[in-house]
Amino acid sequence: MTIQGKILLIFIFLGVSLPILQAQHLLNNEDSIALVKLRNMPDIEVGKGVSFMPKDSLFRLNLRFRMQNTASVMKDEYDLLSSELKVKRLRLRFEGFAFSPKLNYVIQLGFSGYDNEGLSGTANLVRDAVIYYVPDNRWSFGFGQAKIPANRARVNSSSALQFADRSITNSTFNLDRDFGFFATYNSHLFRTFDAVLKTSITSGEGRNYKSSPNLGFAYTGRLELFPLGRFKKLGDIIEGDYEREESPKLMLAVAYSLNHKAIRESGQRGTLLQSGMTKDIQSLFFDLVFKYNGFAFYTDYMKRIVKDPIVIENFPFLYDQYIYAGQGLNLQSSYIFRNNWEIALRYSSIIPVETVRNLNGFNHELQYTIGITKYLISHALKIQLDHSLDQKEQIDGNILYGWMTRFQIELGI
Known about the structure:
By secondary structure, the protein is mainly beta. The protein contains 4 helices and 20 strands.
């Protein structure tokens, strides 16, 4: 072949191959752009929310919402029949980290009437607003508004309950949320034995309280022991054994709190004490959680100690005001079947001290509850039905009965 022929073949080859190579380059470039876009798209997982993270990885946002729609029919101890149809809880939650995975944040807002109860009747949207510094897997330090590390039943999210709501024991004695400083220390002691120490120093006035008229604070400490190792997927604060623990798991915990110069009836909750009075309120909690192969058992003991619980007695035209000093016990047990149907039983009691009995007229209150839950997507989507029988013993020995039936659907992402 002549030199002119070879040159002609080279030009023909280049004329055919260059457009192909250019097209291939464009395709590869489009693929790389698509991959970058894909990496920056939100990560969506049912039950764990929607997550966003920019390509510089300096920020992460996880967005979740949930709602509880509830219908209930009840008859109180005075034979008054009533019903409720409402959105009990409607929550929006943001969490993630900023600038570093060691700097975490949690924000939770509540929009239902139940969520917004406040001292002055104004909207009380903010439930959690806290920043955590997590230097390693042992330590955690928080500043802001969050749940006080006291009893297990209150630390449990209301989205992770196996009944339509918490017990009367918890509603009477729990500490709820407060603003202040929080610290957690995780320790592995030996073999399968772990321990967790949680502490807080908070305002003592509860969530979103504007200012305190005194220098009283609330001091809380909680010790958790895990002699058989940790539960699957935070099973110690999620009711029921949905994950079906393959080996027995046990948590034992004790907590103590002193609310110095409390200005509300229940410390962090309740009506303001009249006449600017303050009280020192002590709270003691003991928790036990056991789970194995679909079976779960809980014990919650709570006690509130006040030197003189009476605030105002026989206050004209209003009511007697007192702090509900006393003790309570909650026992509940459940089993979840392979088809994700669960049956649960609960016994709850509250017993006031004698001075309180003389004012509220009751020696004790008992509640027996049976609940049935169908888990469709774990606790993120579930249907619940429970029935409770209430029993109140008056100081003259007469017993009054009431009952309540609740149907609820929980939906969250």
